[in-house]
Structures are given as structure tokens and as C-alpha cells.
Design goal:
Length: about 375
């Protein structure tokens, strides 16, 4: 058949647009079409996050997440410098607030050194040099962490790649052929030699639409934020994180300064009632049925219900959320916090209830990649 492009990419977030950019670097003459269902790119996860460029500290050595965070963080900083995009190397503190957290803090320090990260182990006096208003008994300073503007980075990828970006084009059908694939959208068909699935919150659906069974489902978790009022922003200089609980897959409430001088507190992690459910009022019966119909969701809930109960309390009670913030920032009061926009995390959950803690790639017949 004739081809509209060599590669069709589903998803116009930062993953899809960076894929298009990487393809253009590998083969400048390659024709790439990026299909995005929203009227504009970078609308969901890319546009609803804290802007932190993570160092890779939390990720298992040898994992793809660790490699992409460590190497990708350096490449992203250089890309921002080359393109004149906003970027700040802020560093961050990971703070232990009680003695039970010290073994985990030391284990993180060892992991960071395995990754080759600039790590400093600090006591209270050393912590105060970076964050005088933060409470804790020990901390790690990770010098390579930074912040950037991910939507701006995505826009640069789109421009530099030369890819054709088709917004307002939800994918409705995928037909494999011996010599390629035809992707149906609400606007027009796209005929390509290769399909790459970068659909984020809907990536499992795109995989099944292509005839594949990924073995996981995307279970959406909403991360809710508050931000410090202008008068309280001086309480935090940079990025402050708690020691993560290995029994729970999320980092816990932390404090992150953004490129515009604001300071966000959060996120918590609560089940969203829609894949694009940025508040409790947004409910999708179809999304909810998919989540509840997946056995992994129930096994996940049975495994982490105690931790999730605390997350729900912080979602429904500002007082409880404030208490979580005050573990790190004792001078913060409820009056210092105002609601900020939330994000939704596309969490891949396996049938046994485990959460994928690394990237998972699959290549299928007829050149479809997820």
C-alpha cells in the first residue's frame, strides 16, 4: 500500500514528541506523524507535573528508569541550554525525620553513589545550610536534581523533529497489514510502516486496539497539590523530599520550588475516578469499570489499603494534608496553603497487583511498538 509516513506515533505528550525528535536525529529524512487526541500537545501528564528533572536516586541500579534518569537528566539539561529553554539545577534534600528512616536514607546514599550522583550525607547543621526551616535528623543532598518547563521542552521537540503533529485526532481503529499498519482517527486514516504507542494514560487501550495484550492495565492515580502562599514561599529554598516508604509505591508529600518562584506541596496519591480525573467530580463510568474489572486493582488495594487510607485522608482533609507538610516544614500552617492544580499518573498495574517499577517495551508483529 502507499504510505502517508514511515512512522506514526500515538500520543503528543513529551514521550511521543521526544520519540519523534529522536527519530529525526537518527534519520533526518524520515516522515513521522504524531497523533494527539487533544486540541493541543502536552495536555495531560506532561502539562500537569512539578517540573522536576529527577536524578535517578530512587531507581534500581541497572533499570531503564535509572539509566534514563541519570543519562537523560544530563541530556535534558544540555538540550535546555542549547535551545534557550528554562532550566535550573537546584539540587534537593531527602530528609529523615525520625531514626527509623535512617537505614533507608543510608541505602539511598549507596544507591546514588552507584549511579555516580553527587551525594552529600548531612546532619542537622548541614541541612540548615540548604534549608534552614526544614526539620529532620539527617539528610542527603543530591546536587544533580533540577527543574524545567516540560511543555516548553515538548514544543521544542515538536519543532525540531519536523514531524507532522495532528491534534484533535483520537485513534479509533488500528489495522495491521503485512506491509505496515493503518491507523483510523476521527479525522482521517494514517498509513504507516511502523506504529509507536506513546499514549500515556491510554497506552494499554491503544495496545489492545492494535490486537495486543500488554498484561497490565493503566490505573490512574491523582496527585493533588497545594502551593504555599506568596508570604510563605520563603520557608523553602529548593526541593525537599521525605525518605520514601518502600512498602508504598509513591514518594509522599514533598516540597518543590518551580521556575516562577512558587512552591508546591504534594502530591498525595489517590485513585482517580477517570483517566483524566483531575478532581473528585470528574467520573468516567467506562474508566472506572476498566479499573474495577482488572484483578490487579483489587490485589493492589488489598496490599496497600493502610497507606492509601492515609492518602485519602490527606485528600479530603486540609488539616491532615497540612500535618503531612509540617513533618518537613514545621512553620507551615493551613493558612499558608492554597489548592493548586492536580495531575494524574498513568500507573501500570500487573494482574498480580504489582506496580511496574520500570519502563516496559513490547514489539509486536506488523511493526507495532508499545
Amino acid at each position: 500500500m502507499g504510505y502517508d509516513c514511515e512512522v506514526a506515533v500515538v500520543g503528543g505528550g513529551i514521550v511521543g514528541l521526544s520519540t519523534a525528535y529522536a527519530l529525526s536525529l537518527a534519520d533526518p529524512g524520515l516522515r513521522v506523524v504524531v497523533l494527539e487526541k487533544e486540541p493541543a500537545p502536552a495536555t495531560h501528564q506532561t502539562g500537569h507535573n512539578s517540573g522536576v528533572v529527577h536524578s535517578g536516586l530512587y531507581y534500581r541500579p541497572g533499570s531503564l528508569k535509572a539509566r534514563y534518569a541519570v543519562e537523560g537528566g544530563r541530556e535534558l539539561a544540555e538540550f535546555c541550554r542549547e535551545q534557550g529553554l528554562p532550566y535550573q539545577r537546584t539540587g534537593k534534600l531527602v530528609v529523615a525525620t525520625d531514626s527509623a528512616e535512617l537505614p533507608r536514607l543510608h541505602a539511598l546514599a549507596q544507591r546514588g553513589r552507584e549511579h555516580g550522583l553527587p551525594i552529600r550525607e548531612l546532619g542537622p547543621a548541614g541541612m540548615a545550610e540548604y534549608e534552614p526551616r526544614v526539620a529532620g535528623i539527617a539528610a542527603l543532598h543530591v546536587g544533580s536534581t533540577g527543574i524545567c518547563d516540560y511543555p516548553a521542552v515538548s514544543a521544542a521537540y515538536a519543532k525540531l523533529s519536523g514531524a507532522q503533529l495532528r491534534t484533535g485526532s483520537p485513534v479509533t481503529a488500528i489495522a495491521r497489514r503485512a506491509d505496515g499498519v493503518t491507523v483510523g482517527t476521527t479525522l482521517a486514516e494514517v498509513r504507516a510502516k511502523v506504529l509507536v504507542n506513546c499514549a500515556g494514560l491510554h497506552s494499554d487501550r491503544i495496545a489492545r486496539l492494535a490486537g495486543d495484550e500488554p498484561g497490565v492495565r493503566i490505573v490512574p492515580f491523582r496527585g493533588e497539590y497545594y502551593e504555599l502562599t506568596p508570604a510563605a514561599r520563603g520557608l523553602v529554598r529548593g526541593l525537599v523530599y521525605p525518605v520514601p516508604d518502600p512498602a508504598f509505591p509513591f514518594l509522599g508529600v514533598h516540597l518543590t520550588r518551580d521556575l516562577h518562584g512558587g512552591v508546591h506541596a504534594g502530591p498525595n496519591a489517590v485513585p482517580a475516578l477517570a483517566r483524566e480525573g483531575y478532581d473528585w467530580r470528574t467520573i468516567s463510568p467506562a474508566d472506572l469499570a476498566t479499573t474495577l474489572g482488572w484483578s490487579g486493582s483489587w490485589r493492589l488495594g488489598a496490599r496497600h489499603w493502610r497507606s492509601e487510607t492515609g492518602e485519602l485522608r490527606r485528600s479530603l482533609s486540609k488539616r491532615a494534608f497540612t500535618a503531612g507538610v509540617r513533618r518537613l516544614l514545621p512553620d507551615c500552617t493551613a493558612d499558608d496553603l492554597v489548592r493548586a492544580p492536580a495531575g494524574v499518573r498513568a500507573q501500570a498495574v500487573a494482574r498480580d497487583g504489582s506496580l511496574l517499577d520500570d519502563f516496559a517495551f513490547a514489539e509486536a508483529r506488523a511493526r507495532c511498538m508499545c
